[in-house]
Amino acid sequence: MQTNDHNIRNYSDELSKKYGAPGTPERAQFDEEAYSFYSSQVLLEARKEARVTQAELAKRINSSKSYISRIEHGDVNPSAGMFYRIINALGMKVEITKPIA
User: Fold this and answer.
1) Is 7 domain-assigned?
2) 65: domain range?
3) Which of residues 99 and 67 earns the better pLDDT score?
4) How many domains, the chain?
5) Does some domain include residue 8?
6) How far apart are CA 9 and CA 64, in angstroms?
7) pTM for this model (two decimals)
8) How far apart are CA 53 and CA 93, in angstroms?
9) Helix 25-49 and helix 11-19: axis angle, to 10°?
């Protein structure tokens, strides 16, 4: 009898089993939700590290506290422009680099 040792050996295979192959609508939806969650956590941690309240941040970017809350809960995925505005308002920067070939 074979048992599951609960060790994932290939994460891509596991995602494909559960959400479909890359390029399928199901996988695209999963990827979008995963990116939204990741972005929300990055922004939440950045705000907390900067010791800024949601209301303060909203004021700095001319938005509402509820919008910041929705971003941090992963309910809204901010546009790239809004992401940069938030990061800037927290005194941080985003650096994009090309990988060395």
Assistant:
1) no
2) 16-89
3) 67
4) 1
5) no
6) 43
7) 0.72
8) 19
9) 120
